[in-house]
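If you are new to this repository, start here. Below is one unmodified record pulled from the training split, so you can see the exact layout before writing a loader.
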Amino acid sequence: MNGWRGRAAITPGRFYYGGHIGAAAMHAHYAVQLLIGDGLILRGGDGTAHELTAALIPANTRHAIVRGTDAGLLALIDPAQAGDLAHPPGTGSAAAGAIDLSPPPRHDLPTLIALADEITGTVPAAHLHPGLAQAMRLIDETLPGQVRLSALADAVHLSESRLAHLFREQAGLPFRPYVLWMRLRLALYALADGGTLTDAAHTAGFSDSAHLSRTIRRMMGDAPSVLSAGVRWLRG
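And here is the target side for that same chain:
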């Protein structure tokens, strides 16, 4: 993800980016990746390179960006939210998951967010169960402190099993991964504001900077510094 300059946004389970996409060495990451841009060249784990307009790359699939694009779109989606798209049948390389979008979508972040949400499906916020919506607000208020499902369930007058089911069904993520994405968002915002890795880790409630760095690399495929330099964060 070196050389990236653009705008980014993060929501529970999803990272969205629009702008200049640079080359990236062979790697694999936890998230499903939707990549769109004219003139992109991707190399799969088998060494074969393909020029693509759009690609849907399954989780944990080795790939490299041989040539980036000046105006591209990228979404990283937690496999728990991607359903069958996390591991499509018959895909063995980055190119195998390519999708055809004709004509290509406009190169802007709202388009990417809408496209990613259409492909993977989301539950509109207006349709969330009131108890789940309240639990989400309480998580925002509690972080960076420790968040317990039992305490949330008591606060919103639901059983733990019912609230856990609502997180999976409507938020698209189990409870613990949901909280982790919220911590990740706080950390990235802190880095964007000029904080050190240690500052960001403390701001978001990670045990230390190494824990935060490992989490970002695992979930997003690159170093924290890449996601703070040259990227303007849109906050919702």
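Two things worth knowing about this chain: DSSP finds nine helices and eight strands in the chain. Residues 5-120 form a domain with the Jelly Rolls fold (CATH 2.60.120.10).
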